[in-house]
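Recall the central idea of this unit: under ordinary conditions, the amino acid sequence of a chain determines the structure it adopts. In this exercise we apply that idea directly, starting from the sequence alone.
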Amino acid sequence: MAAGAVARGSKRRVPDTQIKKEKPVRYFDYSLLFLLIFLMGFGLIMLYSTSSYYGSARYNDAAHYLKKQLFATALGIVGMIIISRIPYRFWMSLSGLAYISALGLCTLVIFAGKEAKGQSRWLEIGPLSFQPSEFAKLAVIIFLATIVYKTSKQVGDFKTLVKVVVMILPVVGVVAYNNLSTAIIILGIAVCMLFVASPKYSHFFVMALVVVVVGAIFIMLAGYRVERIRIWLDPEGLDENGHMRGYQTMQGLYAIGSGGLFGKGLGESMQKLGFIPEAQNDMIFSVICEELGLFGAVCLIMLYLLIIWRFMIIANNAADLYGALIVIGVMAHISIQVVLNIAVVTNSIPNTGISLPFISYGGTSVLFLLSEMGLALSVSRGITLEVT
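Accordingly, the structure predicted from this sequence is:
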């Protein structure tokens, strides 16, 4: 009896082989990948719907723009897959080279760029055209993430903050020479990354004042930029020839207003039939509103918000500060571009010529956007989950 009591009261030793140990499990953000695939599919459908008239009229091929966008998207997907499988810390060693290359290519555009619509923003490489300013966005994200990561202990110091900003200014200035809107995006990306890394927010009030002053100077240096502000303030005003100065803006607003709550139906837009110039580019959101209505526009915005939410999840759980900063940079790029594009289309800000990510026509844009998504997915691969 006593022996039984002792047996019942004693603790049985469990062999080590039977103890479940915590095993790290590699993570991959499939939610972000699926959201991206859905957004790209939606973008290609809307691009075909928007550009089919121009494709038929100019090239006798309704799918002309769709085919070119599909080619760039396919290249971008291949690049995204490759980049997502490369450890993201690998790019730290190439960040300086990427930044110098971006600065050199953007400078080359000034002297040897292909001119289109009065602006030299492209370089021709054989039969292909390439927009270096899109590469500059990616290069700045990698370069700035590296610099901030290496000076993370001093980034709260105002002098260090100024030094980092000064390092970015050369590429911002070169890009702003021909493309102020892209320069604003690059500067916005830098400010967002520094804002997240810096523990002192008061410094950014001074930076904001400097940005406003510098932006005003660049606007005053070019007469056409001042004219855009005048058009924004009075889009229905007439020029010296009696033509409406804000014709594109007003046609876009007509499209948004005529779409109503649920739109006219896919492919049924009237404004895309020559009324909105180059509707497949910066003004594609207005056609989305006309064909799919307010409901479709809100769904698209929600899709962007879901993607941004996934970026936040990856950044919060990144293995190190470098990975988090890369994702913050990509998130800032897409967020700023979406906000500015929709603001332009709705005439909330002056026309700046900014495309809608993954929706507007533009091979270089989608190629480097997908490369950035590959970086974000690479950071997600670095996240480990402890599973018992």
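The longest strand covers residues 119-125.
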